[in-house]
Amino acid sequence: MHWLLTGHTGFKGSWLALQLIEAGHEVSGLALDPEPGALFEAAELAPRMRTDLRGDIRDPQTVRSALDRTRPDVVVHLAAQPLVRESYRDPRTTMETNVMGTFNVLEAVGASASVQAHLLVTTDKVYRNVNQVAGYVESDALGGHDPYSASKAMSDLLAQSWLASFGGPPTAIVRAGNVIGGGDVSTDRLLPDLLRSFAAGTPAVIRYPDAVRPWQHVLDCLAGYRLIVDALLAGDGAGEWNIGPGPDSFVTVGALADLAARLWGDGATWTTDGAENPHEAALLALDATKARSVLGWADRLPFDRAVGWTVDWQRRVHAGEHPRDVTVDQLTAFEALPR
Ligand SMILES: NC(=O)c1ccc[n+]([C@@H]2O[C@H](COP(=O)([O-])OP(=O)(O)OC[C@H]3O[C@@H](n4cnc5c(N)ncnc54)[C@H](O)[C@@H]3O)[C@@H](O)[C@H]2O)c1
Question: In angstroms, what CA-CA distances link 10 with 6, 30, 33?
């Protein structure tokens, strides 16, 4: 099977590309160049890609020609400006990338004769946040306070509208929560920020220690994506899906920071940022009952182990192991876990 990933040079894209390649698939990608130190480069993924295209999804012709050149069976649209704080700094690029970039992907996939399954990745932040304790279900209203959340809600609605109006290959929209895992080099994401500080031997500074997030290991999220693609290829699975962990993984930012500091050792600590910070949602929880009951999907890594695997990845790389070897070890260990 030949997969085209937009955003293959990013965090989720690199894990997914390596996982698919290890499983014997052919993988092409369209994205911007990787960030310095990104997993894509550290794990030396470029030579293992069937086609490694660099281009901007804001340009319709770039996206169309990527589909024409690669003629994939499956498209997973991951490329985005995915950071809340960056969306306050640069709302225009965030909107253009996340909304019109998605438009360009929908249009190009719709015109492609090869695509049999299309997965569009949005986020838990697409839901209108009413600070409800019960998780959001797929039929809940969408909304978005900050520019990132709004852009993703718009891309989600855009995809629903496109599919209802123009059809296209079997398509699913997947909303997942905060994922963690080794090799995430983004700034302004909690665990990468923490691990960078721990490795440098400086106290980490965190915002919103009381905010609750649904933490999930990237491999559990990707396992959900792949089950949905399997369903699409079997003629099922179109529509919206939540992929998120159970309530045991709805944990405060402060509790996650405590656990990560304890697992890292070496006297790692954190403090709270006293500065005025832009608004971020205080409570976000997803209800993934649909994915569990229809697809048989379930998290294999509970919260403690998801954090443990992430800290372990970073520790091993910090100690000199090759990021590709550590990543492949974790892919193999994950496959061996009971489902
Ligand atoms: N990581 C998370 O916790 C999380 C949570 C919910 C949803 N998501 C969603 O998952 C997807 C992947 O996120 P990630 O964590 O891997 O992000 P990332 O920042 O690591 O990767 C983003 C990818 O998109 C590409 N990209 C950005 N702008 C582009 C443009 N204009 N043209 C072409 N490519 C472009 C980058 O080159 C990169 O390959 C995003 O859609 C994001 O919104 C992520």
Answer: 9, 11, 9
